[in-house]
Amino acid sequence: MSSSSARLESCPASPRFFPIFTLFIVPWQHAFGWNHAQIAQAFSLAAISVAICSPFLGRLLDRFDPRRLIAAMMLAFGLGIASFAWLTPSLHQLYATAIFLGVAGTGTYQLGYARVVAGWFERRLGTALSIVVAGSGFGSLFLPPLVQFSITNLGWRSTFLILAALPLLLGAPLTYFCLPPPPIQHRRTSATDPAAAEEGVNWKQALATRSFWLIALGVCCMSLAENSSIVHLAPMLHDRGIQLEDAAFVVSFLGVASIAGRLLLGWLLDYLRGSLIAAGSLLLAGTGLILLARGHSYRADILAALIAGLGMGCEFDLMPYMLKRYFGMQSFSTAYGLIYTVYAVAGAIAPLIAGHVYDITGSYTRVLVFFSCLTLLAGAAMFALPRYRYAVPARAAVRTPVLKPETVPLANTRN
């Protein structure tokens, strides 16, 4: 697979809805004569848009009611999807729509919902986050076959209208009318009542801590491992002589294992230190990736996919959970947006690096082993995380070792 194909099949920085857009590549090529590199540029623009907008949307989520923001962004996202039904041969229209979807899509993924979940749940926060994150995993398993069926039978333009109905008629109304606002008061309340301000530190203080950068390191390495392997997994297995049907099963098995891992590790977050879960997740992903890179049989690849899948994807449980425990809720979404930007940038370049190395060497082994080693080292670094600053009071004395909490620099102004 070439590096341009890698860009085409990966959009890690965008919401999980974007990967189904790869199913429209061939119809667009037949309809407009675009090549892979031209379409890949649209995916890259969408990914970059999400990476840039995430911290800014996080600031808005910290200040205003998440329900209204998420519902508005979902309406915009649905309209952007619907506009593809009137796509013309103009590449400028394709790129402008991709950028619009990237900006609007920023509010439709876990960044927005994590704010609500983290505000409502305390003792079972890990379990609640894992259920929310696993929902997108289930969608990525079942939606692509349905979309392909619709493209084959109804055409790609009609399929976009059907897809647009999901956020317009279901997502936005359900979010606005059924999603309860978090019980924690937003920062705008503190302007008139300082006592009502949320507990926590501001995002500038968070950036000055070791904890923030250790979490960012773990997320970065996980993104490199996850996105470099998933994008190239099927062609890598096919190069070894494995049938495409069997390779597709390995990819699906990795996805199922990832969902199981999210649910399991999310549940464990409520009982064990997050640093232990983060280390275990990274070590599982790194070990599985090494086994995938050096596997020589179908059974070995299945085992490797199981091990890697259990570790991959858990960063979306860990990010919001650990950010709340270390920095509180005052600038929770802003910190989440900054961390997600790290994930997005790493996820955008990882498939390109892997594809470029393959074009030069004819093998994925070296680059995947390199990324897996980074992941293993990051897993070891997670043990340097201090104990929670904002732990659940009833459990802090039982579950958390007696360690000195990390000192957060004080600031004279609130941000």
Topology:
Blueprint: H1 3-9, H2 25-32, H3 36-63, H4 66-83, H5 91-105, H6 110-120, H7 125-154, H8 156-178, H9 187-190, H10 203-207, H11 210-239, H12 244-269, H13 274-294, H14 298-311, H15 315-327, H16 332-361, H17 365-381, H18 393-399
Helix pairs in contact: 1-3, 1-16, 3-5, 3-16, 4-5, 4-6, 4-8, 6-7, 6-15, 6-16, 7-8, 7-12, 7-15, 11-12, 11-13, 11-15, 11-16, 11-17, 12-14, 12-15, 13-14, 13-15, 13-17, 15-16
Provide a descriptive summary of the structure in words:
It is a single chain. Mean pLDDT is 80; it is low at 1-15, 185-196 and 395-403. The protein is 74% helix and 0% strand. Helix 1 (3-9) packs antiparallel against helix 16 (332-361), helix 3 packs parallel to helix 5 (91-105) and helix 11 (210-239) packs parallel to helix 13 (274-294). The termini are far apart. The chain has one domain (3-184, 199-399): Growth Hormone, Chain: A. It has helices at 3-9, 25-32, 36-63, 66-83, 91-105, 110-120, 125-154, 156-178, 187-190, 203-207, 210-239, 244-269, 274-294, 298-311, 315-327, 332-361, 365-381, 393-399. 48% of the residues are buried. It is mostly helical and 415 residues long. It has 18 helices and no strands.
